[in-house]
Amino acid sequence: MANTKRQLFIKRRMRVRNKLRKVNAGRPRLSVHRSNKNISVQLIDDVNGVTLASASSLEKDLGIVGQNNVEAAAKVGATIAERAKKAGVSEAYFDRGGFLFHGKVKALAEAAREAGLKI
Question: What is the pLDDT of residue 1?
Answer without folding.
Answer: 57
